[in-house]
Amino acid sequence: MWRRAKRRCVLRPGSAIDVGARIYICVVATIEDVRRIALVLPRAYEALVGDRVKFRVGRIVFASLSRDETLLGFGYPREERAALVASDLDKFLMPLPSDERYQWVRLRLTAVDEDELTELLLDAWRMCVPKKVAAAYLG
After folding, report:
1. What total of structural domains would you count in the chain?
2. CATH number of residue 87's parent domain
3. Which of 59, 64, 124, 131 could bridge 54 with an S-S bond, Cβ 3.0-4.6 Å?
4. Rounded mean pLDDT of 58-62?
């Protein structure tokens, strides 16, 4: 998305466009951002399962990248996911039919910035760890 303009980004990460007197920088999340955010969380680790990068706490997956690394699946309360997806159809997707039984939502990495990605990953991680661990980390 565009910083300041809040429009959907159509350029590559880090590219810029001059619109009138302002220059907007395209800021989108990448797999490196996902990895950096997820791996600092207590008890979180990365695993490669079936050609997919997954982030886990114990045996529970809280985030997973698609094979082409354009989509990120993450934990999200089942009863709230339809409202999340409806809030921004260009950004969020319902889980695949095989994953609908899980508390899971998908998003397009090119449609999210680093701050929102951090918030979503933190909430997904918090669903997987004991409350004491989350409270200690979040302060």
Report:
1. 1
2. 3.90.1150.30
3. 64
4. 96
State how far the alpha carbon of 137 is from the alpha carbons of 64, 94, 123, in Å.
Answer: 22, 29, 12
Based on DSSP, count helices (H) and strands (E) in the chain, helices before strands. Answer: 4, 8
Element (H, E) at 122: helix 114-126
The residues that bridge with 74 in the sheet, in sequence order, are 63, 105
- Rounded Cα distance between 65 and 71, Å, is 6
Helix axes 131-138, 114-126, angle to 10 degrees: 150
Q: Give the domain range for residue 127.
A: 28-138
Per residue in 8-49, pLDDT (tens digit) is 444 444 445 445 556 555 567 889 999 999 999 999 999 999
pLDDT in tens, 92-133: 999 999 999 999 999 999 999 999 999 999 999 999 999 999
On the CB side of 136, CA atoms within 13 Å amount to 8
